[in-house]
Design brief:
With 302 residues, the chain is α/β, with parallel strands linked by helices. It is built from 11 helices and 11 strands.
């Protein structure tokens, strides 16, 4: 069996979307569809059931995904075993991260890592926190930088940096520039939400604040990407809760206005995450040891 077909199916099954799988694999949609068709022909059974633009895995598809995940993990173990025979630290590291992280210590870590280990290459992808944790659980990625509020027995976790969130509106919004506002003035305003917040996921601290203060405006747009939430706020769709550091330039340019409360709505930890049972290559070990030593005035989680 062609492993490339199995790997393509694995990504399709994880994304439940041909188009999203194509983007992730850097392939065209027809190429992904053709690979899926060829794999089904080789196996001799349907792996997905289509329902218009959406689809679900068949029982055979679920079993094939399980096997594909195991095979992918075995290839990763092979890389680790073969590297032990080399005296050079080389290899590729797959890192999944949420968007918009600002951490000077992290930037310095990347610079020194490249200086000291020029043979290490990085493949960095931006995903939601929930997608990152799911990928780590399946060992399809080695490390993640994400929000996580749930303790998993298999998951290693250390706080990298902490972000403060506040509510903002743009110069296209009626509340822009108005002094003396209170939370009562925000209760009926349209909201732009993070997808994790909307689903009660890893950003649910924002949802908890909204519920506690009866901010029940209509959610008109959402995204898992910080820059896209900022874009929607700047476009005047509504008010949004964003990391303070992401908004500084737009505030200086007179395009954003800080809304109540004056203090942070919440503080969210961005954590370094890894699977405790995953066998690491020398490159991955160096990456983890170096990054775990990075601190930026935050409490390290146990």
């Amino acid at each position: 069996m062609d492993w490339n077909l199995l790997r393509t199916f694995q990504v399709v099954a994880q994304e439940l979307s041909i188009s999203r799988a194509a983007v992730r694999l850097h392939l065209s949609q027809p190429a992904v569809s053709q690979a899926l068709k060829r794999l089904e022909e080789q196996i001799g059974t349907a792996l997905i059931e289509r329902h218009g633009p959406r689809f679900m895995l068949t029982p055979s598809g679920i079993e094939t995904l399980r096997v594909a995940t195991e095979v992918y993990g075995q290839f990763a173990q092979l890389d680790a075993a073969l590297e032990q025979s080399s005296d050079q630290v080389v290899g590729k590291i797959r890192l999944l991260t949420v968007s918009g992280i600002q951490c000077t210590a992290y930037d310095h870590f990347l610079a020194t890592l490249h200086r000291d280990y020029p043979g290490i290459t990085l493949e960095i992808e931006v995903h939601s926190s929930d997608a990152i944790i799911s990928a780590l659980s399946q060992k399809t990625a080695t490390f993640g930088l994400a929000v996580n509020r749930t303790a998993y027995a298999w998951l290693g976790q250390q706080c990298l940096t902490r972000e403060r969130y506040g509510f903002y509106c743009s110069d296209l919004h009626p509340l822009f520039g108005r002094p003396g506002l209170s939370l009562n003035d925000l209760r009926a305003e349209n909201l732009i939400s993070f997808t994790g917040d909307l689903l009660g996921g890893t950003l649910s601290a924002l949802a908890e604040f909204r519920d506690r203060h009866n901010l029940n405006g209509h959610i008109v747009a959402s995204s898992a990407n910080t820059q896209e939430v900022l874009r929607l706020v700047l476009a005047g769709f509504g008010i949004g809760c964003l990391p303070e550091h992401v908004c500084k330039d737009a505030i200086s340019a007179g395009r954003l206005w800080r809304l109540p409360p004056d203090d942070a709505v919440c503080e969210v930890d961005i954590n370094l995450l890894w699977h405790l049972d995953q066998r690491l290559t020398m490159a991955e070990t160096a990456f983890l040891q170096r990054l775990r030593s990075v601190h930026q005035n935050v409490q390290v989680l146990p």
